[in-house]
Design brief:
With 441 residues, this protein is an alpha/beta fold. It contains 13 helices and 15 strands. Strand 2 and strand 3 form a beta hairpin. It binds ligand PLZ.
């Protein structure tokens, strides 16, 4: 459980052992399961990933926002080790166990909203979103679902239908689910310069009222900061205006915080950054359990209780080891120190990215909150997406031991979401690599 917190490249990337594994893999693993960087990782700690060839990468992706608290966080390792030796499975809907309830207490007490809340646990983000759809439909007796341009909600049939991009998520996998409607998102970098948050919300509301009808809509699902869409932070007032409209029309407001949630932005949930926002339901996953598969839906008790007994469940949802990890993560977050750290990391990253933007016009936009930051790359002097430069920078970072991820509807966003266990020194080291890549472009 220790690994020197240092970037170190000792072979070509991927190295010989990774290449051999990639060969084995290609024989037996479906090519539908792609790989961004074929460096096979053997161990990780804090903010460092070590591959089978001995190369050490600075992790600027946290497994897409999962190990927010750091790889092999000692509290998580201890909680999971203790739990795995004691009880690994009963199925909560057959015979329950305490850690599931404890995780529910923590989640309901820290989710925003000045009302009584309840929770339920599942395995994946997509499963949480699907269950939120079921709950909202049952609670409202309505069928239609509103989602947004540039959104991402998962890979199951219903959630892939809720995604904005058809490729790669939906191509050839249809028919997609019906009753899903995409409304225009607030995208400050690409919206008209003078458009306010409330105006952007009115544009979406008008669309939904005309196209779907407010009285038909069971729920509106929105990521308070869009993840796969490229860390799009909606203009201030956008989310609150949508919430006011959902409340006036009996629509369940669901914040999908699978990527933005739990300490990533410097608060428990990104929703808390918007004045007055209190989502009826929030979907959580990824970062809530430090690497263990756990997801959940949390929100207004009367909506959560609308589902009949036996209507929600699943064999592995909220399994003992997963909820034990969730409890270990949430109890550590209660100190508040992790939120401050997310903000400090965000200051360093955004400060340096903005300086790079001044020198390199290929960076069109720098955006994000806390330790959830991104750059959108464009053809200099325009806002035309520049996926080629994005790909080149991505490769440069990977070759030099910095694991960054891409994103964006136009494949022209690099996102930075390091574990909060990272040191200032490593953050700077990773950004030096990025800066060198920009200079080379
Ligand atoms: N909602 C907001 O970001 C997952 C996708 C990884 P699952 N995003 C990463 C991939 O390529 O499959 C995500 C998300 C938001 C829902 C999900 C889905 O979460 O745990 O991947 O099902």
């Amino acid at each position: 459980m220790s690994l020197e917190q240092k970037r170190q490249i000792v072979t070509a990337i991927p190295g010989p052992k990774s290449l051999a594994l990639q060969q084995r893999r290609s024989e037996v693993i479906s090519s539908g399961v792609g790989t961004m960087l074929a460096a096979f990782i053997e161990e990780a700690h804090g903010a460092i990933l070590k591959d089978v060839d001995g190369n050490q990468f600075i992790d600027f992706g946290s497994g897409i926002g999962v190990v927010t608290i750091g790889h092999t966080n000692p509290g998580v390792v201890e909680a999971v080790s203790n739990q795995v030796a004691k009880l690994t499975h009963t199925l909560f809907t057959v015979t329950p166990y305490e850690p599931y309830v404890r995780a529910g207490e923590l989640l309901t007490s820290h989710a925003p909203g000045n009302f009584k809340k309840k929770a339920a646990f599942f395995n994946s983000g997509a499963e949480a979103v699907e269950n939120a759809v079921k709950i909202a439909r049952k609670a409202t007796g309505r069928t239609e679902i509103a989602v947004f341009d540039h959104s991402y909600h998962g890979r199951t049939n219903l959630t892939m239908s809720m995604n904005f991009k058809v490729h790669p998520y939906g191509t050839g996998f249809g028919p997609l689910a019906g009753s899903v409607h995409h409304a225009p998102m607030s995208y400050p970098y690409r919206d008209p310069a003078e458009m306010t948050g409330p105006e952007a919300a009115t544009r979406a509301i008008t669309y939904l009222e005309k196209r779907v009808g407010a009285a038909q809509i069971a729920a509106l699902f929105i990521e308070p900061i869009q993840g796969e869409g490229g860390f799009i932070v909606p203009a201030p007032g956008y989310l609150k205006t949508l919430q006011d409209w959902t409340r006036a029309n009996g629509i369940v407001f669901v914040a999908d915080e699978v990527q933005s949630g739990m300490a990533r932005t410097g608060k428990w949930f990104a929703s808390e950054w918007e004045e007055g926002l209190e989502p009826d339901l929030i979907t959580v996953a990824k970062g809530i359990a430090g690497g263990m598969p756990l997801s959940g839906v949390v929100g207004r008790a009367e909506i959560m209780d609308a589902a009949h007994a036996g209507g929600l469940g699943g064999t592995f949802g909220g399994s003992p080891t997963a909820v034990a990890a969730g409890v270990a993560v949430m109890e550590q977050y209660e100190s508040g120190n992790w939120f401050n750290r997310a903000l400090e990391i965000g200051e360093i990253i955004s400060g340096r990215l903005n300086a790079m933007k001044n020198s390199y016009p290929v960076i069109g936009d720098v955006r994000g909150r806390g330790a959830m930051q991104a750059i959108e790359l464009v053809e200099p002097g325009t806002k035309n997406p520049n996926p080629a430069a994005t790909e080149a920078l991505l490769k440069h970072c990977h070759q030099n031991g910095v694991l960054v991820l891409n994103a964006g509807t136009y494949n022209n966003v690099l996102r930075f979401l390091p574990p909060l266990a990272i040191s200032d020194e490593l953050v700077h080291d990773a950004l030096d690599v990025l800066a060198a890549g920009l200079a080379k472009l």
